[in-house]
Amino acid sequence: MNIFDRNKGDYKMVDLTEFFEDVRKDAMDSGLKLMKTYGIKGMKEELGSTNPVRLANKMINFFIQYEEYEKCGEIKELIDEYKKECQTK
């Protein structure tokens, strides 16, 4: 894909693979923020996610690829809290 470079007044090639990977990273970071705000239970009840634990596990797998293990740990804690809540009911 070409994009106009205003500084040079010409078009240059853009690496779409890198662009879409950046979009994907931003989406996963936004998903993590939502999950931290609403919790796993809230993802299901308030945001309509049909299987929030499966979604959370997919997010963990994504963050492992980028060695963002602290985010994986945060998600794992949210999953554990949700499972604890489900067991006490």
List the defining traits of the structure above:
mainly alpha, 3 helices, 89 residues
Mean pLDDT across all amino acids: 87
Radius of gyration: 18 Å
* Broad shape: elongated
Count of distinct strands: 2
Query: What fraction strand?
Result: 5-15%
Strand order of the largest sheet: 1-2
Q: Helical percent range? A: over 70%
Distance between the termini: 53 Å
Strand count, sense and closure of the main sheet? 2 strands, antiparallel
Order of helices and strands: EEHHH
Q: Structural class, from helix and strand content?
A: mainly alpha
Report low-confidence residues grouped into runs of 5 or more: none
The total count of helices amounts to: 3
Structure description:
With 89 residues, the protein is mainly alpha-helical. Helices cover 72% and strands 9% of the residues. The chain contains three helices and two strands. Strands 1-2 form a two-stranded antiparallel sheet. β1 (2-5) and β2 (10-13) form a beta hairpin. α1 (16-45) packs antiparallel against α2 (52-65), α1 runs parallel beside α3 and α2 runs antiparallel to α3. The chain is elongated and about 65 Å long. The termini are far apart.
